[in-house]
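Protein in question quoted in full.
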Amino acid sequence: MKRILVVGNGPAAHRLTDRLGALGHDGPVTVLGAEPHPAYQRTLLGSVIGGDLPPSALTLSAPPPGVQVRTGVRVVAIDRARRQVRCADGAVYGYDTLVLATGARPTGDLHTLDDGARPVRGRVAVVGGGVLGVETATALRRRGHRVVLAHGGPYPMHRHLDEVAGQLVAARLESCGIELRLGAYVPPSDTLGADTVLRCTGTVPDTAPAREAGLAVRHGTGSVVVDDRLRTSDPSIRAIGACAGTPDQAGSMAQAETLATLLAGGEARYVPVPPLLRPRVPGLDIASVGTWGWPGAGPATGPDEVVTFSDPARGRYARIEIRGERIARAVLVGLPEGIAAVGQLSATGRPVPADRLALLLGGRAEEPGDDPAAMADEAVLCHCNNVSKGTVVRAWQDGARELTALAAATRATTGCGGCAETVRAVCAALRVPEEVG
């Protein structure tokens, strides 16, 4: 039986092993995680440091039977000729297929579960106004801290929002009592008048083992080069997640599912879709599809159509760029129904409905035949917590009939909340046969 060795124990690795088990893979699978904790949801770290969630709430489900997970293991070398991985403690692991799921390494202070649990005192300076910085600042403010957010861009999350959306977010942060220091220059930490300084300055793909093993790495992004079967320049080594260039969790999950199908003997190809981000800013629904904020960040060719909607008095705004009747880029603020619909269209690659305004204000993104009851059990409903439809169905059958009970049982909807409408639809489909009977 072929040995699968996975380096990395984050959500992408967790999804890979979960799907391998569901697909009936019966060969040995070993996972090596550098941190001492079981797999957990890293995107919710801001909620931990803000006190909204305990660290234990981030832990993902146990791996399927037959998967061995070894935590606190740091890989130091890959021997491609012998197909072996050597670790810092001297242990050596052999493989037939090696999967790199090493994620990204931080350039700041908040990246691991231990970072999220660190004590925070007094006035807090958050340096870096990307998604993590904004989420951390708002979480700490809700906790009662005085917060200053220092960011080198012209507005918060400038790499994910256009100027109008960014200004709406800035106004929301200030209305919450967060002091903003914006501009091309971020002042030194010791001039921010803070008792605690948290640097949320981003991440870079963690590709050190891949580089040292001589695998091809992209210039610029620094991520491992993979093809549509997730193969690196060495066919016996695959890569998924942030180390393979996926900037969002949905893309990482799609890569994991594709690779699981391939390793279980099936046929699949990974087709990238525009990254979808759902920053958590209480009181302000936000979504960003694609990349914004610097020259060349958009699609290689210009859009065929641009749809804009602006309602500044109510904090609502949208800009959607359409190419070939499909979404190329989009940014939405204060439009929860539109965000859900645009997210569905982006994830599935389906054409945009003719009534663009209805789409933004509450129209469904579904096509004829879309039926929650027909969704496969392995379909992921909640990407933040890697919750499948099957998990939700089992919780519903065990008595969790309302959204709050399902959230408590499965943690679906407790991340960005973007899956709530889909979870409700699945529950409604489950009730129909029961009511008919």
About this structure: The radius of gyration is 22 Å.
